[in-house]
Amino acid sequence: MKFPVIALLTLGFAVASCSDDNPRRSDFLRDAGDVALQEDTPNDEAPRCIEHSDCSSVLPYCDVQSGDCVACLPGLETQHRWHHLWPGSEESHPEIALLAPHPDGGMVITGDFRPGDLTSSTTPLWGEELEHSMARLSAGGEVLWIRGLPVGLRNIAIDDSSQIYVIGRSDSQTDLGAGIPEDAVDESGFLLSFSGDGEYLWERRFTTPNLQALDAHHGEVLLAGTFAADVDLGAGPIEPQHEGATGFYALFANDGAYIDHRVPGPSYTFSVSQAALLDDNTIALSGTFRAELDLGAGEVSSGTNSDAFLVVYSRDGEHRAQTILTSPGTVSPTDVAVRPDGGLVVLYNTSGRVDVGGVFSFSPLYMYANSGGTIEPFAVSYHADGTPHWLRGLRAARHGGDVAVDTLGNTYLLGSYQLYYRQDSAEIDLGHGARELVGESDGFLAAYDPNGEPLWELFYSQQGSEIFASALAITADEQLVAAMQVTGEVETGAGPVSSASRSTLLTGLCMP
Fold first, then answer.
1. Distance CA 216, CA 110 (A)
2. pLDDT by residue (tens digit) across 274-322?
3. Which residues are bridge partners to 204 per DSSP?
4. Which of 69-73, 230-234, 432-436, 479-483 has the lowest mean pLDDT?
5. What is the structure's pLDDT at 170?
6. Secondary structure tally for the chain: helices H, strands E
7. Is 228 or 55 the better-scoring residue by pLDDT?
């Protein structure tokens, strides 16, 4: 079924143009049928404008810049609620790297920004004002608290009780919150935990791992990555299986206590970059490998470069299912989201034709002689048993990207696309036909139903502007929140923003 999609062009439009009988559909939003508001739409279903001088009447959807309040209105499939632009300068470029929904509402962001980049000095601050930070935002994007961090983070997860977990790497002289350990090594991976209010709780340090994936659910924390030298995850030293990287995953309690670990394989080079704890007490891992690999169902071989895998294990490490993705180029997972039926949606990058377990195949749109193809994204949805369900290629050279799934099973893809090597022009096809590149780099947000059929798409673009996707999340109050890097001018749907230097844009949208 195709859904008509209407977008309000700006918050000012929602207020100042309330007398318009036929609101226009924005140029940057197109639906599957290219259908605007039908003339025979019943009056009680037509889009309506709401304006208030007192934002408390419709909190939390308040445009703090103008004082006007906007709520999700009947008759709209999606609508921008708010945006915040944190401007950059020649000396500083605030950037949101990670975005996670908070169970109590709003979200937690991490990245390279100082407290002064986001808000006034009166905002509650945990710890020192440092270059790397973590902040809790309200459902309307307002900063509730902010915490300085001594190092950047690789990943973030928040469990059902609002406890926050982060991973990264640090040197031996870095105080993560509990002082510098006496047995600190030159460089180590770490797992940190904070309360929902940003207060330091505990930390675990590991001597050699490259920690990449993190998830938390039902009082447990799943950690995954690679190691190339002896490492102790909590049950004594373990050795790598080859000179190359060896993948692993480990489970910890929410107080940091060790529970279990596994080292699947072996493979010459084997890494786990995405991981998820599922409701049926299973563990899903996605990563890459070279040469031979045995995940528990027999040995498989990779192609000339690196291939990818998705594997599902039971809680006690029993192999349940796997899918191997092969390519003469490279293929690697970049993000994962859990579906409400226990399945997964995994976002990948590839530089060549990909075979997905013999079920689907995908080829990059642009091919050229010396590389085998552009780095192009595609998404694969998997059933709960690990078998591929649908594939959606985004048909464009791209930068960044993220995936989220709502409680109905709809998938949302955030990304950006640009000119690539030896290209005179660029276009993207998200399922509604090709669209030409407008700026130096354009951003997009696309929605697909549980079977992978396109619902709607949004574009963020302006001639001469650069928009790079950073992160996407669905909050507890069911709004889409997207983070992007912006240089130049862009229309968000909640008003235009402009910045001469690279700046961070955070925007919230109503769910369909």
1. 17
2. 999 988 789 999 999 888 888 888 888 876 678 999 999 998 889 999 9
3. 191
4. 69-73
5. 81
6. 2, 38
7. 228
Q: Does residue 13 surpass a pLDDT of 60?
A: no
| Half-sphere exposure (Cβ direction) of 228: Cα atoms closer than 13 Å | 8
* 3-class DSSP assignment, residue 309: strand
CA angle (133 as vertex; 127, 139 as ends), nearest 5 = 105
186 vs 46: which has the higher pLDDT:
186
Strands 125-126 and 143-149, bridge-based pairing: parallel
Instruction: Specify the 3-state DSSP secondary structure of 272.
Output: strand
DSSP E strands, 102-244: 107-112, 125-126, 132-137, 143-149, 155-158, 164-171, 187-194, 200-206, 210-217, 220-227, 231-232, 237-238
Neighbouring CB atoms inside 10 A of 478's CB total 15
As a residue count, the chain comes to 512
Burial of 468 (0-12, 13-18, 19+ CB in 10 A): buried
Sign of the torsion angle spanned by Cα atoms 231, 233, 237, 240: negative
Tokens coding 468: 């790079």
Task: Give the CB-side neighbour count of residue 438, counting CA atoms within 13 A.
Answer: 19
Q: How many CB atoms lie within 10 A of CB 13?
A: 19
Burial level of 487, CB count in 10 A (0-12/13-18/19+)? buried
Rounded Cα–Cα distance for residues 338 and 215 (Å)? 11
Give the helix/strand (H/E) hosting 14: helix 11-16
| Two tokens, residue 419 | 């000119």
Check if the beta carbon of residue 481 is closer than 8 Å to that of residue 472. Answer: yes
Token reading at 322 = 């796997």
Which of 85, 181, 163, 107 is closest to 467 using CA atoms?
Answer: 85
- Residue 265 is which amino acid? G
DSSP bridge partners of 412: 404, 447
Per-residue pLDDT at 49: 36
**Which residues is 249 bridged to in the sheet?**
224, 262
Amino acid at 115: P
**Backbone phi, psi, residue 44, to 5°:** -75, -5
Interval 446-483: pLDDT, tens: 999 999 999 989 899 888 899 999 999 999 988 899 99
CA angle 147, 153, 156 (to 5 degrees): 85
Amino acid code (one letter) for 337: A
Give tens-digit pLDDT for 73-109: 444 445 777 888 888 777 777 888 899 999 998 999 9
Whole-number pLDDT of residue 510: 79
Do residues 415 and 438 touch, judged by C-beta distance below 8 A?
Answer: no
Q: Would the pLDDT of 35 be above 60?
A: no
Q: Which two tokens stand for residue 66?
A: 């103008």
